DNA sequence: CTGAAAGCGCTTACAG
DNA sequence: CTGAAAGCGCTTACAG
């Protein structure tokens, strides 16, 4: 910047202004400075500027895993909103554990991000106090929890899972199983299971451990579970899959076993997938506006940075897409 | 840091050393400092430290889109390798255009990342000169190009596409179409198409514009293309899909139309998917070690930061998984 | 093993 | 509209 200033015959502070508040610099001066910048290939040192202003251009986001289409749709929304506003996304994963989250939050906070996005609503006490001490806004996107640290953006996992289960009940199914991806620290899954139980019990139907099946979240696991439902737990006439990929595996297994859907067993998935909608029969699922969650989370974050007050929560809702498997 | 130093009765520089080079500090001093740090909830200011040392902890990665399972598997590999080493991932998207890449690279460079990962091997001249001027290592992961800026990590798109096409030829198919996602600036797709043509021509078969079909990359597009191949270009007896999701759509459409695979038409996909492998018949596809590409790219980046010389290129290879659709 | 001084490249706050 | 001075919170380089 000193070099630019010298060549442009101005003080360094004028170069700084030309970059940050161009309207306060005379047009000819601005022009001269920009020419010199181009000529020299000058790229401002962001961290140096941040030091005095105490304002970085970083937004930190922590998600359970990057390798997951539903999460990355959300991250895309975050990124698309932030980039044009001059902010940069720092992305990390918690590995789906509270300790992992705390570790990455601690590491990220030392970079002084302007806001923190967490796809999780349960945190270690230490993590909470770190965040509180940092003073930056936090947006939680995993679930619309009762008491967000600051602002929650998303949908209600309870309402969504209740709606999905209730749909099966309304269609007259009486022995409804729920299948979920094993993940001890995933509060969102726990919430969905509670909603499933509530819906079943509210309707006077039976719930029980034999109707709640933990497995891995992949396509192959869904296939294995489906076979078990047909061969062993043969009273089950409907299954709700809390994780879209498992439902795909169950669907494919039904075709292989020539088990009619929904004649022999109905299938519904928590998350809609392009493939699930194209299979025959097409899978009934919840459409969740993941991209919107990311975009709105980023929008709320920038509003909070700009001095806006916490929104409490922003509900993007969900939509039940009734198709052919129920 | 000054507060910590005062409470611990040491000079600030000793606190700095306790954090950065603990082995050069007396154990009792270290202990005392760590107690005060905990008591005060002190979190070091990373950007401030970076200013004097000229060393941030940031690694920047630019990918075409975040919302893509094949890319995010790679990013997961990058992230998993970087985090334990104390580096942070700054992630951005180019939107699949060279101008978008240049813009995000420029913005990222102002944050002074230690290395740059680009999932692309073609750049604007301005982008190249920006990168060169920055002096940081660049790892290109899109393709094993001839002349990487620094080091390329990945596989040869040409070899992979040639192998896939050659496989159909070896099986005796004679009218082979190729289907690709329209994306004018995607050099990787162009390379794959060239390889397809080379394989077909090398075998004395016919290539031509009527056998090369541009479409969108999603499942639905694959279905539309498949119907066109059966109804209109009815001589075609095999199709190679440069994009895994399109092949899934084509497969599902065959089932709906009761078109036998590979009896009436063979299908192969460039990228393997869990679903594709489970469909009946299972889709022949290339297994590409995406996660490994990310991990190795991160490893090479840190090696280069540490003073290692450019590796030229690191070939992770690919594997043809012959299944039932060919 | 510990410390005093200087400085990284910007921006703030004040002055004109 | 422009500038001189001070300082953000660390680390380097030197000294002991």
Account of the 3D structure:
The structure is a homodimer of 326-residue chains. The first copy, chain A, is α/β, with parallel strands linked by helices and 326 residues long. Chain A folds into three domains: 2-44, lambda repressor-like DNA-binding domains (434 Repressor (Amino-terminal Domain)); 53-155 and 290-317, Rossmann fold; 157-287, 3-Layer(aba) Sandwich (Rossmann fold). Helices cover 47% and strands 16% of the residues of chain A. Chain A has 13 helices and twelve strands. Chain A has helices at residues 2-8, 12-20, 27-40, 46-53, 69-82, 98-109, 125-134, 157-170, 187-202, 219-231, 244-257, 274-278, 290-305; strands spanning 58-63, 88-93, 115-118, 138-140, 151-154, 176-181, 212-215, 238-242, 266-269, 284-287, 312-315, 319-321. In chain A, strands 2-1-3-4-5-11 form a six-stranded parallel sheet, with helices on both faces. Chain A has a six-stranded mixed sheet with strand order 7-6-8-9-10-12, with helices on both faces. In chain A, helix 10 (219-231) packs across helix 11. The mean pLDDT of chain A is 95. Chains A and B meet through helix 4, helix 5, strand 2, helix 6 and helix 7 of A and helix 4, helix 5, strand 2, helix 6 and helix 7 of B. The structure holds a DNA duplex (16 and 16 nucleotides).
